Amino acid sequence: MRIAFIVTAGAGVAALALASSAAPTNAGPAAITEIPAGCASCHALKRPENPTVDRLWSRKGPDLWYAGDKFNREWLIGWLQNPTTIRPGGVMWFQHAKPGDPRDTLDASAIEKHPSVDAATAAQLADALLQLKGDGLVTEGEYKADGLNMTMAKMSFGKLRGCSSCHQDKPGEGGVSGPELYDAGKRLRPDYVLAYTRDPQRFDRFVWMPRMSLSDADLQRLTGYIASLGKEEN
Amino acid sequence: MVNVRALRILVPVAALLSASLIVHGPAAAGDDDPKIKASAHLYDTYCAQCHGVQRNGKGVNTVGLSVQPRDHSDTAGMASLPREEMIRAITDGGAAVNKSALMPAWSSVLTEEQIEDMADYLHFVCKCGSE
Questions:
Q1: Per-residue pLDDT tens for A12-34?
Q2: Which listed residue, A7, A129, A139, B80, has the most CB atoms within 10 A of its CB?
Q3: How far apart are CA B88 and CA A156, in angstroms?
Q4: Which residues of B touch A207 (CB under 8 A)?
Q5: Interface pTM (ipTM) of the complex?
Q6: What are the extents of the domains in chain A?
């Protein structure tokens, strides 16, 4: 099955077998478990063996080697059909920053658009991506959705823990060097949010979100708040 | 014949000069100094998001900050900041030096040596060694 998923001009659609360890050259109808090789030209589909600061500067898209831990399927299917900008400054904000007054700005027009696919292809890609998991990075069920004080959780995200320094919890409100979180409730799996927030360096030793000293209660609160974002209309 | 009186004056002066070179080494170094270049790259990656691409405290994230980040290009303001406090703030975050908690701890990302080098780099950026 051919997937029209052009990442860069001239990129081939040779398939990367994920589920099968034998990696046959012709997998026949098992295309649902495959991700086009073109995706790998921008995204790390396997954990980088030698992560460096410079890799963060040269990569063209976020890592997807733990996509199965990270994304909700329904959101992924919708986004692949109608991609939006999640990182206001692109995958590495500095690349699009310009000095300014009263503050530096981001040149959004320079951010490369992600290609879109049709509904059937989006579902196939989502299913293939959801098979990619970090080994033990995320613990299923660690987030407990009960007893959340949303007022405290919102305060934690803002003044107390400073998440809003880099992330937006409402469009246009908050920092811009990190991915927006105003639809994180639809996009991200809460267990992933908790694991990543606790220790971003476990996912990437050099990523510019530092590890904070957060108690378990803090982590649960923040995860609960982030998991609620974008769900208001439900 | 050694002039003992001259030595009495010259030796302490020379010692002071070398101590000054050690303390203020990076300020005397240029942009092409490997440590300065490495620190500048780390600054761009981690610090400039708040402290600005021009190191003037006007980073892209200041839009969401209730407390404005320090202007590292401010010679007078930076000169009054002890090096140890700088290192503590980078290592353990702003709250550790009674400043804003919005400045996070960077010890999970930067090594002790990189933080020491960053303190030297900040000294270079603020031109604090030139007075």
A1: 333 333 333 333 334 434 444 67
A2: A129
A3: 23
A4: 109
A5: 0.84
A6: 15-129, 150-228
